[in-house]
């Protein structure tokens, strides 16, 4: 006796769910198809362009994922610093050298060979760069990210960057 009534209620509930799903789907904004980003010719980081850094994807100064590539000429390194967000670094070309801390000690830097990977946790004090060959690294992270210079001398006194052209 209750069976027809239960069947009627189940059928009505099913019809409501299907109708609501169709209505919500019809109201959802349609996104244009996303084209994949392909840089098969590595045009974003040709040495002849004189670039030292280029953004491959996203924007490190804005919220969201970003990918950048940094090129270090032979003998060029950063000075001690940290980033306020995690960063994931892959060596694309050459041997990249790195060390941690706030005192710049290039003789203590350790090599990360081509294809190698390094995780820089947020607030990890470090410096990095190239020794005797050109190096290209690819860095991924979530923006916005800030870089803070932290270099001190062996006595713990802050080292101020020299202005351009100063000896």
Give a nutshell description of this structure:
The protein is α+β, with helices and mostly antiparallel strands.
State the separation between the terminal residues, measured CA to CA: 99 Å
Average per-residue pLDDT, rounded, comes to 83
CATH class category label of the domain at 52-149: Mainly Beta
* Helix fraction bin: 10-25%
CATH architecture tag of the domain at 52-149: Sandwich
Instruction: Tell me the Rg in angstroms.
Output: 26 Å
Unreliable stretches, pLDDT < 50, 5 or more residues?
none
Shape: elongated
Note the beta-strand portion. 25-35%
In CATH, the homologous superfamily of the domain at 52-149 goes by the name Jelly Rolls
Number of distinct beta strands? 10
Largest sheet: 5 strands, antiparallel
The helix tally amounts to 1
Describe the strand arrangement of the main beta sheet, using strand numbers: 1-2-9-4-7
Strand pairing plus helix content: what structural class? Answer: alpha+beta
Which fold name corresponds to the CATH topology of the domain at 52-149?
Answer: Jelly Rolls
């Amino acid at each position: 006796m209750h069976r027809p009534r239960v069947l009627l209620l189940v059928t009505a509930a099913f019809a409501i769910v299907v109708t609501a799903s169709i209505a919500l789907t019809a109201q959802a904004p349609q996104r244009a198809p996303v084209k994949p980003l392909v840089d098969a010719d590595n045009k974003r980081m040709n040495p002849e362009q004189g670039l030292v850094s280029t953004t491959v994807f996203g924007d490190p100064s804005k919220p969201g994922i970003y990918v950048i590539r940094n090129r270090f000429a032979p003998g060029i390194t950063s000075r001690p610093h940290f980033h306020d967000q995690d960063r994931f670094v892959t060596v694309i070309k050459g041997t990249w050298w790195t060390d941690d801390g706030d005192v710049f000690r290039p003789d203590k830097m350790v090599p990360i060979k081509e294809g190698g990977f390094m995780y820089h946790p947020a607030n990890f004090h470090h410096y990095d760069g190239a020794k005797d060959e050109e190096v290209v690294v690819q860095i991924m992270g979530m923006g916005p990210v800030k870089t803070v210079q932290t270099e001190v001398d062996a006595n713990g006194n802050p080292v101020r960057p020299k202005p351009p052209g100063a000896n």
